[in-house]
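SAMPLE LOG
Freezer: B-3
Tube label: C17
Construct: single chain, 180 aa
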Amino acid sequence: MALDKITPLAAPPGHSLTGAPGKWPWERPPQIVDPNQAIDFIIGNIESQKEDENLAKMMLAGITVEEIVSQIAFKGFMAGMFTPDVAELIKPALAIYLVGMAEEKGIDAPMFVEDPEFEEKEFNDVAFFRTLKQRNPQMYADMVEMINEEQRMKAEKITRPASPPVEQPAPPPSFLNPQE
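STRUCTURE (predicted):
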């Protein structure tokens, strides 16, 4: 039975543990274990393969240094070059290298992915609902429906004529409600 790799949750939990170990590059020992050697290796590849022009174009186009560094580190891990720990440790040094390269080429490279909503001093209700709509649309739809339902209920109370109170007959005397 072939697994559908596009459908989420197609493989049962633990499926990856049933295959032969070492099938993927990241399942084998890494080729580089020292973060300094990993940085030297990556910078050497960038300079020897003339990738600096492509990276400069990316930064000029608006791709942030953060995104480029994350991709380089992730691809190195996926290729089995280094461990995830080394990938995280080399990110600051790669970022400094890329910023220096951009400055040499006269490029004002954006450093981080910026969300203008979070630049506001206060995270007010408008910013909250805008972020909620983007990041959790189901909860946003549920909240909008709840608010609309409350407004409909209020409108019904206003438009419905008030009925006169119905007098309840007095309960018969008993030892539970003594009459004084």
